[in-house]
Amino acid sequence: MYAVIETGGKQYRVEPGDVLDVERLANFGENDSVELDRVLLVGDDDGVRVGTPVVEGVTVKASLVQEVRGPKIRIFKYKRRKGYRRTTGHRQSLHRIRIDDIQA
Question: What does the alpha-carbon distance between residue 34 and residue 25 come to, in Å, rounded to a whole number?
């Protein structure tokens, strides 16, 4: 069984046992459980169910493994011939979650 979920403005194809990094959720600690209800598609032996926009009555249960940081992104601005240079950076806060169960 697999599902396509939406969290943090991105879509992920997940199966039970998958570990993935998603945009930071609300304030959770390690080993907390999360219920994701924005399920866009569910596929199993019976076929594929597609939501409009979400599939009703389906939730994905996940547990929080740890908080991680994404890769550093460098932002460099300059204006030619003016001596103007600015360098900044950004690292996104992410949550690493493990998909435990898809309840259809």
Answer: 9
In a domain, 72, yes or no: no
Q: How many domains does the chain have?
A: 1
Buried/exposed code over 18-48 (b: 16+ C-beta within 10 A; e: otherwise) = eebbbebbeeeeeeeebebebbbbbbeeeee
Domain assignment present for residue 73? The answer is: no
* C-alpha span between 31 and 65 (Å, rounded): 6
Show the tokens assigned to 92: 């996104």
- Has this prediction a pTM greater than 0.70? yes
Q: State the pLDDT at residue 74.
A: 98
**Residue 54: inside a domain:** yes
Band (7; pLDDT cuts 50, 70, 90): very high
Domain residue limits at 9: 2-67+96-103
